[in-house]
Every structure is written in C-alpha cells, then in structure tokens.
Amino acid sequence: MIGRVATASGLAVLLVAGALTVTVLDYRGAVGDRQRAADAIADAAATQAAEKDLSREREALGDAMLGLGPNPGQTLEESAQRFREDLERIGRQEPGERRLVGAGLQANDRLLTVTTAAENLTPTPPRIREIDRKVDAAEVRVLAPLQALRSANLADQARVDRSAEHASRRAFVFAIIAGAVAIVGGVAFGWYAIRLIRGITSRNEQLRRLDQLKDDFVAAVSHELRTPLTSIQGYVDLVLEGDDGNLTDEQRQFLAVVRRNTNRLHRVAGDLLFVAQVEAGTISLQRERADLNEIVREGVEAARPAAAGKQLELAFACASTADVDVDRARIAQVVDNLISNAVKFTPTGGHVTARTQVHGNSVILEITDDGMGMSEEEMEQLFERFFRTAAATEQAIQGTGLGLAISKAIVDAHGGVIAVTSETGKGTTFAVELPLADVKVAV
Amino acid sequence: MSAAPQRERAVVLVADDDTDIRELVLFRLERAGYEVVAAKDGEEALRQAVELQPDLAVLDVMMPKLNGYEVTQELRRSEATSAMPVILLTARVQDEDITRGFDAGADDYIKKPFSPQELRARVQAVLGRR
User: Fold this and answer.
1) What is the pLDDT of residue A267?
2) pLDDT tens readout for residues B28-64
C-alpha cells in the first residue's frame, strides 16, 4: 500500500520537475541569444578602435575626446577601451537587472552625451542629447554600435517575451497537470492512508485480543500448575510426616528435594500469574502502615542461610524510622528478590549490604553488592520480563527473568522508583525509593 | 431454618473433581477427627449438602456441572442450607476470584496449594464460629 502511494507521489514530483526544467531551458536560451548580440557589438567597437578609425575622428574633432562619464580625463585609446568594456558590460547584463550605462563623447568643451538604456532589455532607444552638431561624424560612429545594440535588444526582447510567454503558458499547463496529479496523488494517498490506518487499527485490535488471550493463557497455565502441585506437595508432606512408616534419612532427603522444587514451581506459577495481572492492569494493593526497616530486616534474615553458604558478609544499616503505607507482602517480595539476587550474583567471600535512608518525604532502600555486575546494555533491559544477564545464563544461576520485572511493577504501583547502577566485575546497587507515610503529629 | 443435627463428630463435605486432591483433603480432615463426605462435582455436592446437612462444606471452585460459586449461591438460597458454613478451595488466587467467592456467600477460602496446618486451622476456625 505504501509503495503505491510513493509511486503516485513520485510521478507528481517528476511532472513538476519536468515543467520547471523546460521553463529554465527557455530562459537560458534567451540569455544566450542576447549575449551573442552584445558580443557582436563589442567586437564591432573593438575593431573600430583597432582600425584606428578614431584617429580620423580625432582630426575632425580637434582635441575631441571619446570617453565616458562626466569627467573624461582620459586619452582616446583609454576612452575607446572603456567604451568597449562598457559595451561588453551591457552585453553581460542579465535580464531583470536594471542598470543604466552611459556613453559620452566630448568634443573640445562641447559635450555630446549618449545614454543608452540597456536596462532589462527594455527597447528604449539610446537618448542623444545634442549639444553641437559639429560632432556628427563621431556621433554616427558611436551611434552605430549603440543602435545595433538597441535593435539586438529589441529582437532579443521580443524573443524573450515570446519564450517567456511560451514558458509561462507551458508552466501554466504543467502547473495544472502537476496540480491535478498532486490532487489525484493526494486523494490516493488519503485513501491508502485511511485503509492503512484501518488496517493498523484492526491489527491493533487483533494484537490486543492476542494479548488478552495470552494473559488468559498464562492465568490458566498458572491455575493448571497449581492443581497438580497441590497434590504433589500434599502427598509429599504426608509421607514426610512419617505417620505411615519411618523414612530413612536418604529417603527424607530425596523427598525434601521434591518438596523444595514444588515450592519453586509454585513460585514460578505465582510469578507468571502476577505478570499476567500486571499486563492486564489488575494488580491491586492491600496497603497498610508498615516499617520498611522491619521488612528489610526480615529479608536479610531470610537470606542469611544462603549468604552463609557462600561466606558472604550480609549487613543491614537502617534509618531511624521508615514508616510506609504499602502492601506489606508485595514490598517484602521486592526486598526478598533484591537481596536474594545480590546473594546469588556475588561470588564467595563477597559483601552484600542493605541500607535504608530517609530523604525528604521518601525512604531509599539500597541493596549493594560487590559481585559480578553487568554491562550498560544489560542494565537497560534488566527490568524487562524474562530478561537474564549473560552471566546469569552462563553460570546457570537459577531464575526465570521475572523477578525484577515484578519488583518494578510492584514499586511502580506504590508510586515509587526502582533503579540500578552497576559495573561489570565491580558490583551492583539497586535502589528503591518509596514515599514515606504521612507522619501523624502527636497532640 | 433447620440447624445441622447434633453429632458426636462434625461432618465435613469435601467436593473436588480432582480425585487426588479430594482424597488428600479427606485424609487430612479424617485425621483431624472429622467425619467426611465426598462429592466429585457441583451437582453431587449440592445434593449431599441438602441430604446430609453437613456442618461444613469445603468446595473446589472449578468443578464440572456446577462450580463452587454456584453451589454456594444455591446453598444460600435454600432455607435448609442457608447457614451452612462454606470454605472455597481454589487454585484461582487472583483478588477478583476471591472477592467473587465472598460475594457468593463463602465464609472463607483456602488457596491451592495449601499446607495441612492451614487446612486444619481454617476448618477449625469456621466450625468454631458456629
């Protein structure tokens, strides 16, 4: 569709360009003709000077000087040269340029002024103000080229007028054609644009439906996962309770693995469902007054066994007060996620620090580690669903790539901000900013 | 309004179309000292509830014929069963699903998967409230 619109527009542009080209060529042709006429006159004048014909005039005129302007203090040769140059300059004048060129003859103290109006090829005859008829011979000499110029100008003008007329007529026709083409093209473009937009709209509608389907699907999958999980977990629990016979330590250990993995699967099902809810915009918060320090402390304690397993130093530096109105379980989920990430991505012997600080009306929670870090590119995509860093994949660190997407959705829903700063090989800091609860002033 | 007959042990109706889960719940509740009755779909659950007048109905939400919400609504509509405590057992854990359960007249809900402690505690709590 877009291709056809482009073709129509291209055709219109080509037609307009064609019309313009023809007009310009006409114009240039006229300039050429005129230039040739002026050149011929200049040649004639030059020849005249070269043949020293002027010396005879000099005889006839006595001290007569041939020159230009009101102050001709020049020799005859210089004057002839200036005159020739002047004529050449007339020849070079562009149509549309308005410039008066004067040529004059001076005989003794008597002045004969010849002014030619070579302005814009206007067919104005050279005006001769006669002061003394004695200079007839020189007058004729000078007038001859001027008159030639004049007639050349006249012919030129007529030709230019004609071609200008033609050009304008042609331009007019082309303008009409181009206009028509433009209108047709515009209408076609509009038509296609409407169809295109309709297409996009229906495709958007389709995508929206697909998205809805996907969310329903995820919700259904999550539900269908829960049902078998309930059985697996329930029966494993029954066996582990040992009421139906004692288990060997090894059996107990194996069943604990089953149990742990059903928990993990359960979490994945929950995460999938949560993401579907976020997508569908149906995430709802059960807000209550809570102390963020307490939530973080619990998160740190929960992560202690994992941290101890890797000989990590896990510390918590807390602000004095950090009361927030939040969905406690959700924020705890964020905190747990960030701390367990830090523990997971920090090699043995590293450090993980949680810190809460009050800044104005907000509390900022920072989880800093000196682990493997990540690149700029990875930071940009970090909060996208199912995104996993190269290191996470290479080192087979467990995860679905949903944790941070979920954390961000939760923090966003609370009107907070989550951000990451990191450097490959140096470590990572996650910062979560949440609005502090309104402080009730004691009376 | 007819109250459930006085019994030595509380009778709990357990309805779930998933045999494994039904058996699991039955087993747990029996162990906890209750008398249990099973139903494998919504219609059967409703019939048993009317006939046996159990002290509590534990109903799965996604069941064939009548779902858990519908059974609850039917129970509330009939005078004989309108006061019967109902716990919904659900794998549907979204807020709107839970709200819908309470709107239908359920007393409590248990999310799947559940721990034995949770099942016992909630059943006890609802029965103790009567």
Assistant:
1) 83
2) 999 888 999 999 999 999 999 999 999 999 999 888 8
pLDDT of A151 > 50? The answer is: yes
Q: Model-level pTM greater than 0.90? A: no
Q: Do A234 and B95 touch (CB under 8 A)?
A: no
Q: How many angstroms separate the CA of residue B11 from the nearest CA in chain A?
A: 22
DSSP secondary structure string for all residues of A258-300 = HHHHHHHHHHHHHHHHHHHHHHHT-----EEEEEHHHHHHHHH
Give the CATH number of the domain where residue B99 resides: 3.40.50.2300
Tell me how far CA of residue A317 lies from CA of A296, A300, A321, A335, A430, in angstroms: 10, 11, 12, 14, 15
Beta strand A101-107 with A65-67 is: antiparallel
Nearest CB partner across the interface for B24, out of A231, A262, A282: A231
- The whole domain housing B53 covers 11-128
pLDDT at position A278 is 77
In a domain, B6, yes or no: no
Neighbours of B91 (CB within 10 A): 23
Average pLDDT across chain A, whole number: 72
Q: Which residues of chain A neighbour B95 with C-beta distances below 8 Å?
A: 282, 284
Query: CA of A302, closest CA in chain B: separation in Å?
Result: 20
Cβ within 8 Å, pair A226-B21? no
For residue B115, give the chain A residue with the closest CA. A234
Cβ pair B20:A262 closer than 8 A: no
CB A343 within 8 A of CB A352: yes
Minimum-distance CB partner of A277 among B21, B28, B94: B94
Domains in chain B, number: 1
Closest by CA position to A312, among listed A392, A367, A366, A253: A367
Is B3 part of any domain?
no
Query: What does the pLDDT average to over A54-71?
Result: 37
Residues of A in contact with B20 (CB under 8 A): 231, 235
Q: Do B112 and A230 touch (CB under 8 A)?
A: yes
Q: How far apart are alpha carbons A336 and A297 in whole angstroms? A: 10
How do residues A156-200 score in pLDDT, each as one tens digit?
Answer: 667 667 777 777 788 888 888 888 888 888 888 888 888 888 888
What is the full DSSP assignment across A406-437?
HHHHHHHHTT-EEEEEEETTTEEEEEEEEEPP
Q: Which one has a higher pLDDT value, B39 or A395?
A: B39
Is B96 close to A273, i.e. CB distance below 8 A? no
Length of chain B: 130
Does residue B6 carry a pLDDT above 90? no
In a domain, B107, yes or no: yes
Q: Over the Cα atoms of chain B, what is R_g?
A: 13
Residue B5 forms part of a structural domain: no
Task: Read off the amino acid at residue A279.
Answer: E
Are A363 and A355 a contacting pair, CB within 8 Å?
Answer: no
Average pLDDT over every residue of A84-90: 59
Judged by average pLDDT, the poorest of A128-132, A231-235, B4-8 is A128-132
Q: How far is CA A210 from CA A214, A217, A274, B107, B127, in A?
A: 6, 10, 18, 36, 45
Identity of the residue in A230, A243, A273 whose CB atom sits nearest the CB atom of B21: A230
Phi and psi for A127 in degrees, rounded to 5? -90, 130
Single-letter amino acid, residue B125: A
Q: Which residue has the higher pLDDT, A410 or A115?
A: A410
